[in-house]
Design goal:
four-stranded mixed β-sheet; 8 strands; alpha/beta; two-stranded parallel sheet; 27% helix; 2 domains; 215 residues
Length: 215
């Protein structure tokens, strides 16, 4: 059963497409959802910001009434930015890692395989090939086989879409898989992968300081 309680959880700037996966992945990573069976419906709502004929910018997720979380606690009205997830917090005590237990050690992967993954990811980034301005998150097997890839203007959104896909497909936990992101590994990306029990997270980025590693 469901009741009439509603809560606005988040606003995010995203690349349209896979919005259902984005919402489900975000809610799972935040600890709001833990089983796909609790999701009664996921639908687009009319809004005043969408252009005529364009996809809606508002998505409503309906959760089974007997499984409803503490909505008062969740009604944070926060803006899901492209920042690292730590910036803007009042103090370190406000950080919270949500999710399940610590992932297992995971599979052993040869360095050569890891080095080959960015090229495999780039070959699948259709939107990036057109715009040059989107991030991607990809799920690989321990043997380097590409399972799924999602793109978005936000690094964390791409991970949410990927986790949302796995959540809806009943593939969680991702304890034998690798996730590769096309940019830096932010706090939020690590948190989301932790929630999905991803044992190996790889990222593509330049060093942030030339001093590290100097002799």
């Amino acid at each position: 059963m469901t009741d009439n309680r509603q809560s606005r959880i988040a606003v995010t700037m995203r690349t349209p497409g896979a919005d259902r996966e984005l919402a489900l992945g975000f809610l799972f990573a935040e600890g709001i959802l833990d089983r796909i069976e609790t999701v009664v419906g996921c639908r687009e709502l009319e809004d005043e910001w969408s252009a005529p004929g364009a996809p809606s910018n508002v998505l409503e997720v309906e959760i089974a009434g007997s499984e409803l979380p503490d909505l008062a606690r969740l009604e944070r009205h926060f803006f899901a930015s492209s920042a690292c997830g730590v910036c803007g917090r009042a103090g370190i005590e406000n950080l919270r890692l949500s999710g399940g237990p610590t992932p297992s050690a995971g599979p052993r992967v040869a360095p050569g395989l890891l080095y080959s993954l960015p090229d495999r990811l780039r070959a699948t980034q259709k939107l990036f090939a057109t715009t040059g301005g989107l991030h991607a998150a990809a799920l690989f097997t321990a043997d380097g086989d590409l399972v799924a890839v999602r793109e978005d203007v936000g690094r964390h959104n791409a991970v949410d879409k990927l986790v949302g896909w796995a959540f809806e497909q009943g593939r969680l936990p991702l304890s034998d898989s690798l996730v590769l992101v096309s940019g830096r590994s932010s706090f939020e990306i690590v948190q989301k992968c932790l929630a999905a029990s991803v044992p190996i997270l790889c990222s593509v980025s330049a060093p942030s300081s030339w001093r590290w590693g100097r002799r």
